[in-house]
Amino acid sequence: MLKSHRCGDLRLTDAGQTVTLAGWLHRRRDHGGLIFLDLRDRSGLVQVTINADRAPAAHAVASQTRVEFVLQIKGVVTPRPQDLRNPSMATGDIEVTADEVVILNTAKTPPFYINEESAVDEVVRLKYRYLDLRRATLQRNIILYDRIVRTIRNFLHERQFMEIETPILIKSTPEGARDYVVPSRVHPGEFYALPQSPQQLKQLLMVAGFERYFQIARCFRDEDLRADRQPEFTQLDLEMSFVDRDDVMGLIEAMLIHLVESVALPGEASVTGKRIQQVPFPRLTYAEALARFGNDRPDLRFGLELCDLSDLFADSAFGVFANAVAKGDQIKAICAPHCAGYSRKQVDELTEMVKRYGAQGLAWLALPADVTPDRDHVRSSFAKFLSPHEFQGLLARTGAQPGDLVLVVAAAPAVTAQALSNLRLELGRRLGLMDDSVFAFCWVTDFPLLEFSAEEQRWTAVHHPFTSALDEDWERLESDPGSVRAKAYDVILNGWEVGGGSIRIHRRDLQNRLFTQLGIDEETQQLQFSQLLDAFEFGAPPHGGIALGMARLVALFAGAGNIREVIAFPKTATASDLLFGAPSPIAAGQLRELHLRTVDE
Ligand code: ASP
User: Fold this and answer.
1) 164-186 pLDDT tens trace
2) Residue 601 falls within a domain, yes or no?
3) pTM over 0.85
4) Which ligand 1 atom sits closest to the C-alpha of 238?
5) I need a surface site. Which of 249, 341, 489, 567 has the fewest CB within 10 A?
6) Helices in 118-244 by DSSP H: which ranges?
7) Which protein residue's CA is at the shortest distance from atom 4 of ligand 1?
8) How far apart are the C-alpha atoms of 397 and 213, rounded to whole Å?
């Protein structure tokens, strides 16, 4: 090795030792006869002093260095004088007094500062990703990613799980997205599909008798990208035989608690500093989550729950509400504590927000802080139209107290849910209720098995078509498909879906029945899914599993606002790799070999 020690490891206890270090020049201060260098390697920084009197040759070399040069330093670990110690630096009690400085390589001036976390345009960061990755935050995030993966592997291996690889060149494995396809050279006109997940493969591993499988698996989905999606991503993919929902959920819950308790951030002795809000994780059914929070991934760090007022206003003299209820709309409210003082402008902003989600408007009611509210002494857009009974009912249901602001949306149920769930999050942000040091996990269960796609004019699987219905719901699969609940579960963390899974179908007749209900005819079933359907006839055990999105999980641990901040080489929102310049055209000869011709449209 060109080094005997790591820069960031040196401590007062190493004083007197002769060490050889190698790394990058992070910062340089030149005081003439005395040059200070901060040398950086993966472990951190250490200060090196080069004295012209003590080491004239080293001093001459050091005076030619610039940031990001690659240096080798030989020297002695020396305690710093008390008043020059730097408590904000892990190595701040010592410095290395250099005897020799070797330039291992020079560096051009980088396109942005490596030694400070100044804002840099993301296009530039992605083009020079290898430099961006040198900066402190990304170093920390990538190291954290590794620690989380390592902890997961250990946790699962200790519980008899086996890590088994599955192919990348395979056939369509539907998870509701478009496939990436790869043309075959040896089979003209034929294509592989990249797996949207190893779903069918892990199920086949259960048929094969492995009982407990996991993989840190690559998945590929050609979707219209949203801010927090990547066309290829990694998930912790897991499958177990002879289990029920509680077994899978219990295992994952224990693993997540273990991660929070044992994964340390680099430079920190113990834990991530996160506190889990509630153990065991609260469980909500899909219907309950929708009713109380307006969505199926509630951020449980705070309350501000939705409150249904539809029946209260069904016969109201206030036509807007009564008519809404009559045509099947839902009237729901959120009570924002201590917000009665919101200005007209603030309320208008919130109104604009709910309109973006399709609501016509936002009815509001501000309760004065100091007097017992009565209908005639509140500021409100609608209170004067309410009967005393309706007004009192509204206060009782929402639990509104003096000083609170009640916000009401009346719209089609889906619109009300979307508008108010987003309003709730906005209020949570404004009121400072989203504490990043708190981890509020929960499970959402009993999702619908199917949803009707207006676009395709057929029923589609909400999770994926291998998910089993609740035992008692199978009988309604054909007669009332929308009411059938799935043996599916999602794990949510602070409003993010970090994973989802289900108990699977393991009988051919049931799988055929579900495919048929999804409008897949028998011939197509055989063509696309014979591998799984056939396997189910050879003693498939009951089984189920889950997958957790690694990047999102790590981002939440890292406190990163975006999954690109924890992925070494991410793609842009338009699925481009700016470092390699992918995708890109390929040579004519390569196209010919693949039996492909491109067309200009
Ligand atoms: N294959 C599913 C997914 O990728 C997860 C699972 O059901 O295990 O979302």
Assistant:
1) 999 999 998 878 889 999 999 99
2) no
3) yes
4) 8
5) 341
6) 122-127, 129-132, 136-157, 199-207
7) 197
8) 48
